[in-house]
Amino acid sequence: MFRFFAVVATFTTALLAPGGLTAQTIDKSTLSGTVLTGSGSPTNGASKVILTIPAADKGGFVLTQFCSSASAFATLSGNTIGDLVSIFGVCQTYSPGLAVPPGEALSCTLGVDTGGMPGRGMCTVTGVLTKK
Asked: Which domains does the chain have, with CATH numbers?
């Protein structure tokens, strides 16, 4: 019971903090809203925007998963919040999720692979656009 309460409290606090997002009531760690997914294949170490979060009047966005099939570390970052996570060929899942400010452009950048060549592969983000 304590663990569940800590997760809900942390989630609510996170939703209130960045970019003026508003909190959504969570019932048994489920989110309601519209699922959004974005993906792309960055090239030559460049950053590629894979999802731009809608404006605040559309609701809040909660990031639930970041995946990469890349041959190198993939870093997910936001244009105002900075780096969120770096992974290597796996999925990172957040439950209940990470609050992301409205209008944020989420980008993926691939590092170099073990042979020193620019990484190749796909990055994908998924989350829930909660109702306002």
From this structure: 2-130 (2.60.120)
